[in-house]
Amino acid sequence: MSKFKAFTSLLLTAVMSVTLLSACASNNGNEPAKSNESSNTSTNVTETNAVKTNEEPITLTYFLNAPGDNVPEHFKIADLITEKTGVTVKYERLVGEIEQKLGVMIAGGEYPDMIYPGDKAHMLIDAGALLPLEDLIEEHAPNLKKLYANYWERMKATDGHIYSLPNSVPTGQPNRAISPAFWIQKEVLKDAGYPKITTFDQYVDVLKNYVQKYPQIDGQDTIPFEILTYDWRLFTLTTAMQFLAGGPNDSRAMVNPETGELTFYQTDEKISKRYYEKLNEMWNEGLIDKEAFVMNYDQYLAKLSSGRVLGMHDQTWQFQDATAALKQQDKLDRMFAPLQLTFDESIKADYMDVPSINYGNGWSMSVDNKDPVRTIKFIDTLASDEMQILRSWGVKDEDYKVDENGRFIRTPEQRKWFESNENALGWDGKIMWFFPNASGTLPDGNNYWPGEQPEEIVANYTETDKKILEAYGVKTYPELFNPGNTKRKYFPIWSIELTEDLKIFDQKLNDLNKKYPPQMVVAKSKEQFNEYWDEYVTSVNKLDVKGWMDYHSAEVKKRQENW
Amino acid sequence: MELKIESASMKHKPKQSQFVADLKRLRRQKLLLLMSIPFVIYVIVFSYLPLWGWLMAFQKYKLGSNIMNNEWVGLKYFRELFQDDMFMHVLRNTLAMSIINLVFGFVSSIVLALMLNEVRKVFFKRIVQTVSYLPHFISWVVAANLIMTIFSLDGVVNTILLKLHLISEPILLMSEPKAFWWMIGLTNVWKEVGWNAIIYLAAMAMINPSLYEAAEMDGAGRFRKMWSITLPSMLPLIVILLIMNIGRILDAGFEQQYLLMNTMVVDYAQTIDIFVLKYGINLSRYSFATAAGIFKSVISIILLVMANQFAKRMGQSRLY
Q: Which of A421, B13, B103, B131 has the greatest count of CB atoms below 10 A from its CB?
């Protein structure tokens, strides 16, 4: 499950970069004048931090365990930052396999100045490649100290040092974003007259009614329910039931928020078997895509983009490309709305993440860093509220406006401008999120990131969105969902670092999950289904489930007590 | 002749003259020696020096540490490898797909080469050759997407079969566990047949045309000539290639299976390399991965020696 981490961060970047993209419209001619303005603010920043900009220019290298568009050498925000701090950053994003890349780096013993190791920090820590940051921060970085004050102890690795500064530190009013959900095509909701859907059975009925009414969409067969099963993305099949049973996005076990007790639900008859059984019924009724277990990720996205898929369980970041494609084709009502479903009415849905951060997953400094003090001061400057606004919103009046109430907003033209990938890349390199940052609200009530600002969220809604939300009596989709349960201080389980044996357990369970659940879903008869289920349970129980549970119970207990 | 002279002189001053003779030969072949130096260096750097890393398999290796400072664990990782239920499974898959690939690959490329050799229209020959070897240059990532689209429910294959009324409902070939090995074999033939045929075509070009002329005089037809002249002339090459390929039998491939597999066929699709990636490298278990690598190498050497011995017995050409 450790992959979740890397991909959540990817998701976030993608979300941010998409939303970040909204500034700068037609101002190119005025650039020099504007830069002067911003350099004024920058001197303020530097004064408050007692960093002198007249220091020698320095170039720092930054490797990111996050594939993406090549970062241009110059882009607007970076140039402004260089002007203010004298620091130029040379970015290198991941190409290929991270294990190999880090393996070569470690074996060669040569590291870039800064590293964003994602969920692979432990490899670098084991190799002694990262610099402990706590003393540097105490001494030189008041902004960072403030930003991480509440999380200071939790950020420490097992050896007591802080090596990584995680992103999206919940600040002010924490941001609420929907990631895992059961999704339904907006057109289906519209056609059914915006019914209230709270259980999985109701959801399936709505899908069934729609497909009976419209067996084809745009000349192709309607696909009532889609499942993404390609490679490790299979978790959308094998962890979906935890949500139906009233849990958040944990991993293989569900935690009782009151007692902190763990339940291993993968082989639970009332949870997993119930879900697979329902899917099996759906399969035999022809409600699930026949290719669900054969297609790869690209084919999955292509199907969603075609507008003929009515529903699926997935996490936002996995199908953003499809959403963008639907938008581009102007099939706005074929896009998806999130639902929080449970097995039955008595179960309270708990889909939302508890505001927390990915500990041990963030910006790090390598032991080869040219000038650690200068670097930490640079990062500290970037983490000041003023610089964070520059990194996310941009330059006032150029990239965003401030209305009479002090709210940050973007004009429709700016929003449109930022939708283009090219514009975004030349603006913030789609990379600014990868420095320590806050998520939530500034002291003045504005959000740190445009994508979190309610005005900006609502501005992206279509007519159908507005009708859907009106029908359910809310303003934004996140309001449809129950807020994260703050009693879950441990959240999430998947961020617990695994021992080597548990990693093997995890991989083995993944392999069993790849083999059996798909067979259960496509089983032709109840007997066959039960046969596969029994075989699955027997095989899983051959693994050291108890060892996994003991370890995780202890870790959850530790977190519940100390966090 | 040379040998006789050498052995004769050996009787008189055995050691010294042997040495002198060797030196003489060295000097005579100095150009050849010079030319071979880069390859010797290549082999030393990329094949012999890394053997040092085999030590990793016998210790609890930590990345970035000095190889001599790790804890020695003996055969722990080999035991783990052989005791893993999955290992036998992936070994079976690897062997099955390898053998299918070997047989399909050899037969198809030899047949294609034979047929191309018979084509008299140069233009047509060139076109066929180009078209058949182009897929070789497509990466498996692209090829896999092509294949999956072609065999999908609304793909070309199903459309054609439906139109021809050969099937009443579209079938999903890629989801048939039993068909997966054969799909691997077939797609591999599609991708590599043209490329592999090149070497045979080259060999055919070397055959002395007078042999064909003589056969024609004796009244041999096309097939007779193929059977009695072309094939026997190519036999040494075929045997050499076969021996070399048998040595590589545990390399059934990685990308092809990795990209084409899905949850329905996963039991038949995982090869040793995929297993090592998942349980070794991806989990930073380099020692485990090395142990698997050693196992593969040892098996390869054994198979190679056996194949070579067999060729020797049969009086065929061989590697050494």
A: A421
